[in-house]
Design a protein that fits this description.
Elements (H helix, E strand, L loop, with lengths): L1 E6 L2 E4 L4 E9 L5 E8 L6 E6 L6 E3 L7 E6 L4 E6 L8 E9 L16 E2 L3 E6 L1
Parallel strand pairs: 2-11
Antiparallel strand pairs: 1-3, 3-8, 4-5, 4-9, 5-6, 7-8, 9-10, 9-11
Length: 128
């Protein structure tokens, strides 16, 4: 089992930046493929970004491509989401997720039901 705790959310003006962090505890962090999702009020949870266990492969939603960057630090057991050029439509609760993988893999995952563990979320609000 792994526990995930997000931080770094807040209120920012349009055009600004935030860096979200997701710290993991428990089992070996390097065994997990990782993802970020977001959920706006009244909407379903939506994919944002994903990274393979190997760290080689990344994948982004079209709406954030070129603005957001996912990264991981296995030594710190942390996954990050750097968000630049933020827009009001980026306002949501952001959740990190982890999928346990039993072998070295370059595969990323973009569907919520593919993930095993979730953090509680951190609020990001972008004002216009």
């Amino acid at each position: 089992q792994v526990q995930l705790v997000e931080s770094g959310g807040g209120l920012v003006q349009a055009g600004g930046s935030l860096r979200l962090s997701c710290a993991a505890s428990g089992r070996t962090f390097s065994r997990y493929a990782l993802g970020w999702f977001r959920q706006a009020p009244g909407k379903e949870r939506a994919f944002v970004a994903a990274m393979s266990l190997s760290g080689v492969s990344t994948y982004y939603a079209d709406s954030v491509k070129g603005r957001f960057t996912i990264s991981r630090d296995n030594a710190k057991k942390t996954v990050y989401l750097q968000m630049n050029s933020l827009k009001p439509e980026d306002t949501a609760v952001y959740h990190c997720a982890a999928k346990e993988i039993g072998y070295y893999s370059h595969t990323y995952y973009s569907r919520p039901n593919e993930y095993d563990y979730w953090g509680q979320g951190t609020q990001v609000t972008v004002s216009s």
